[in-house]
Structure formats: C-alpha cells, structure tokens
C-alpha cells in the first residue's frame, strides 16, 4: 500500500501546471511619421508597383520571372515542405491503426516404433490482427507542437512573399540600369561626335597657323578620354543582360526584348503611411514574428514533455489452424498506459534550454528586423529628397556649362583666347551631362528601393498559378 501512495505522489508532482511563457509582441519605439516624407501628393503603392513605369515589355518579363525564376521556385518547394511537416505534426493527434497477418507451418518426424518408419507430424497456424493506438493530449503538448508547425508554415509563406518582393526589385533595378547604360552610351556617342567635329576644326585651324599643335593634341586627348568610358559600360550592359536572363531562368544565349531603350518617367512618390503600418506589411517582419511565435510554442512543448503521457491501445487477434476458419477464434484487449520520464540524463531539460535560447534569439531577431524595416524606408525617403535636389543642381550645372562652352568657343573662333578655356568648358559640360544621366538613374533605382522597403501584399493565394510543379524522374 505504501508503494501505491508513493507512485501516486510522484505522478501528482509531475503533473504540476506548466504555463506557456508567452512573449508579447516586442514594442518598437517608432515615430508617428517619417521625417523625410515628401510634401508632394502621394500615390497608393500597388502590389505590382513596377506597372507604374508604363513599360509593357517589363510587365511581360516580370510574369515570366515569377513563373521561371529558380530562387522563387525553391521558396515554393520549401513552402510545400513546411506544409508536409505541418501534416506530419498533426498526425500525432490522430488514431493509429495497424494490421498484421501471419502464416506459419511446421513439420517433424518422430520415431514412435523402432520396427516402423518414422511418422511425420505437421501443424499450420494462421492469424490476423488489428491494433489501434491513440495518445491523449492531456497537457496540450501535441497541440503546442502542431501550433509551432503551423507558425513555421505561415513563416514560410511570408518568406515566399519576401522572395517575390526582393526578386521584383532586383529585376526592375537591373532592367532600368540596363536602359540607363544604353542612354549613357548614346550620350557618349554624341559627345564623341562633338569632340571629333571640334578636332577637325582645330586641325583645320592648325594647318593654317591659327592654332598650335598643343591644341590639337589636347583635343585628341579629349576624344580618347571619352572613348575610354565605353568599354566599361559595354561590359556592365552585357553583365546586366546575363543577369536578367538568369533571373528569368534562361540560358545566356536566349533573347530578351527590353522594348524602348530609354529611362522611364517617375510618378509621384508612393504613400508610405505611418511607420507602424510598415511593420504590418513587410514580409520579413511578419516572418520573424511568426518564427518567434513558433519558438514559444516549442518552449511550452518542451516543458510539458516532462509530464506523464496517456496512451490508449486496443488490439484484436484472430487465429486458427485452418485459414478458412481464421475468424472463428479471436481475442481482444484494451490497454490504457501512463508513462512519465524519471531519469533521462538531462535530455528533456537540455531540450527545454535549447528551445528557450532559440526563442530569445528569435525575439531579438524580430526587433532587429523591425528596426531595419523602418530605417530602410526612412533612408529611401531621404535619398529621394536629396537626389531630386541633386538633379536640380546638376541640371543648372549643365545649363551654365553649356553657356560657358558656347561663349569660350565663340571667343576662340574670333581669336580672342587660346583653346584651353574651350577644352576646359567642353570637358566640364560633357561631364555634367553624364552626371545628370547617372543621377536620374540613381533616383529611379532609389524609387525601386522605396517600393521594396514598403513591403506589399504579394498574395500567395492569388498567385498559386505561379507555383511550379516539382519535376519527377523515373528511377
């Protein structure tokens, strides 16, 4: 009797209530508005924000990328894995039923009489059995595991959304940069023609004694300087073409139609909303929050792993020496088993510590991701503001440098000055033209970064037609 009460006491101690240490969503001390928000009218950011650029070829190319990009396809595959793991986890709460069948036979010879041949005896036995098992989720341990797997699945959905968002930004940036390089090459071509025309003029004047040989050499140097800029741009253009083909899942020898090769016109800056709204629409922030939730459920499950487990089982067996009458003889039993860990070499305790440490890591990762999200929007808005200021300044520089070039050229033609002021004005004006093209490109690229930092609602349910089917092969 004493042992019976001792066992009961041990189970009661093990059954102490363990609450899940739920962390609340970390509070992010975010300002009410972004400091660099534009005063111009704001437009609502759309899911397919690149359509605002008005580039039909880009829109078609984006559809192809979402269908054929290998990184996105891998994200879809990881989502299917998470869905399968969720199904595996949920199976722990379901009834398990197994069947088994056996057939055995034996023969033996026995020497019953020395004067007679040995007699052969044999027997056959057939049996069929069914066994059902079910674990009662007494402390919601299995439910916690299921909840953790569900959070992992939702986190992977957010990861697919994040991959699509990053992919769209990378494609559009490469697309726009390619067109910007084409514009820069066209500008260099015009500048080379202008420089060569000026070179012919100086050569003509030098032959007639109106210019010295130094002027001729200096202009040749200016022509060579501008031409030297072309190879690097051509290399960059080729790299971007290969990158676009790779992003669309194509080989390097495929063709790509970029349509009209000029920089697009930007609409007004998209609406940023308040900082708190950014956290709700950023896939990476949502993913980090879901991973934190998952780790907290696993802490709860690790705590409850120390509690007793109740398993119910039922078994039915049929057997007979004749297969045709196998169901004539039968027996069944029902068992309820209660087990609890006593000595496990600190296994469960270390699993609990591991789950706690992982939760702490996810807690800090969420805060870092949220702060980075807000900073990225603020940086993009600030860059938009100052890039526009820079464009205005460079446009003014282009205008003034053109006036300077015209005046120095007029004075040179009239013999009122030597060629050095003309050369300086020409180099300054052409550099200002190139800078203007570069800054305009930077503004567009920064707008792309702003759209990326704002997040978005790339709805998986609406894009399931883009889910690539897993390729199979016969073994």
TrEMBL record:
Subcellular location, record wording: Cell membrane
Pfam families membership: OEP (PF02321)
Membrane-related topology note: Lipid-anchor
Chief place where the protein resides: membrane
Signal peptide interval: none
Keyword Lipoprotein part of the UniProt annotation: yes
GO molecular function: efflux transmembrane transporter activity
Keywords, comma-separated and alphabetical: Lipoprotein, Membrane, Palmitate, Transmembrane, Transmembrane beta strand
InterPro entries for this protein: MdtP/NodT-like, OMP_efflux
Gene Ontology CC annotation, any one: plasma membrane
Family recorded in the similarity comment: Belongs to the outer membrane factor (OMF) (TC 1.B.17) family.
Descriptive protein name: Uncharacterized protein
Species assigned in the record: Lentisphaera araneosa HTCC2155
